[in-house]
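Both lines are retained for reference:
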Amino acid sequence: MDKEQAIRICENLRINAREDIQEVTFQYLTWNKQLNYETKTFEWLMANAVLLASLKEQSADELLIELLKKITTYQDAVKMMKDPYEVKQFNSFTNVVPLFS
């Protein structure tokens, strides 16, 4: 799966399958779109989908969708972000003020 393919999957979920994803997943995808999917967390998500696909002998497309559907809480989204700057950007985008930093 290349980046363009992953972006198409994400955009399809965001636009055409909104009822299949949680609000926080929609926000995560919208935030990534706003940044042209040029985030470390998106790169990490794609890499995980490809790695898990090879281990599970499943398509990376299906696994990417599964991983996105597993984001059910704000904390799930933030746990994927390893870069503190991206967490701050996402907090700002979602208007969430964390209680603890």
Summary: The chain has a mean pLDDT of 92. The two ends are 35 Å apart (CA to CA). The CA atoms of residues 44 and 87 lie 14 Å apart.
